[in-house]
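Support reply, case 0932

Customer input (verbatim):
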Amino acid sequence: MNHSSLSTLSMGESAYVQGVEAESAMSRRLMDLGLIRGTRVTCVLRNRTGDLAAYSIRGAVIALRAEDARGVLLHSTQLQ
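Our regenerated output:
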């Protein structure tokens, strides 16, 4: 994985936030949850249908719908 979105992480897989591309209110909400550039995110749980997943973000576990998670762009290595 080099570039992808949060919705593509498999259970147990980690990556770093590269940026958020969502409509204004959702973008603000995602950043308020700690999804800012350079943050490490790990997928800790995914439901069977794949439309909901839980992610470890800065010590908290946050559940997001796949639709919202697609707006969080990831990179496999930590960004400077």
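We compared this against your earlier run and they match. Two observations from our side: Residues 20 and 30 are 8 Å apart (CA to CA). The chain has two helices and six strands. Please reopen the case if you see a mismatch on your end.
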